What we know:
elongated; 7-stranded mixed sheet; 403 residues; alpha/beta; Rossmann fold; 12 strands
Amino acid sequence: xxxxxxxxxxxxxxxxxxxxxxxxxxxxxxxxxxxxxxxxxxxxxxxxxxxxxxxxxxxxxxxxxxxxxxxxxxxxxxxxxxxxxxxxxxxxxxxxxxxxxxxxxxxxxxxxxxxxxxxxxxxxxxxxxxxxxxxxxxxxxxxxxxxxxxxxxxxxxxxxxxxxxxxxxxxxxxxxxxxxxxxxxxxxxxxxxxxxxxxxxxxxxxxxxxxxxxxxxxxxxxxxxxxxxxxxxxxxxxxxxxxxxxxxxxxxxxxxxxxxxxxxxxxxxxxxxxxxxxxxxxxxxxxxxxxxxxxxxxxxxxxxxxxxxxxxxxxxxxxxxxxxxxxxxxxxxxxxxxxxxxxxxxxxxxxxxxxxxxxxxxxxxxxxxxxxxxxxxxxxxxxxxxxxxxxxxxxxxxxxxxx
Length: 403
């Protein structure tokens, strides 16, 4: 954990992946993140594998550096307790539709009345100005509607989902950025602010940076799609014993590669030397790589390509990352002992600040682990806290929920 956001208090009303990923990043930067959960807990706690029913691997990985409070926001006194927490907070984050937030008493105007300087950042599936504003959204549906599944089609033209929750995580990055932007801009006048970061628009913006291509111009200078990325030959290339990525990018790279494979006849060709012609003929050039790579092993190719400063990489399995020499050198993976889940392998935050050592991370919390302390810090009287527990409107680790 770093200290760049030390002193910033974030009320985290997010669930599953998109929102918790965003607030994990903010927690990694040192913010105090108060994770507000229903009495049943974030539903992502149940996703397997896990050693206990309440702490699945995905939940653990998305919720470090947070404290947990469990409240039933349908209860008037529990909602009042949450408002007391918000009154002393800097930021509120959620990933629900505005109508749902308002129904729970945590809409922007409702919380601005509690804290006139609150920074309110939320992620929906679709922006509130369009006809899909109230549509539910999950990673698969956003991959589909955004065009990403079509872009990732197989050789038969069938659309495919990426085997990672890319829409959630891209959405989470945009949500985290919105919080950081709000914190940076608050110095201007100190007033409340509401920022929307919808999944659909975030992923479309993310993809269209390069895919808008010829449609960037009016009238269009060509079709949509970045030709190099859409080439059927842009893929990991088979070697004698595995696969490798080879990407000669400029004329010098291509000249060195052509000499390596004995194609000196193409070295002066404009399809190699001219950047525009290279772009137009990328299929032909990538086909040369595909034809050449099976003749040598991956290690042989890596040595020869690196000697010539041609960009390349071995294709790794996920299992290979634990022993990757670079990741080992920078300490990407570590072991920690979780108070209830035992020994864990963890992937650290990728960020480093020069001259600042990283403090130990706070392990993902047990449901309601900090309920009592957080309420007391917010100024809720101990007797009122006990009443919340007694009426089943709050829960804490180690305490039975009232019937």
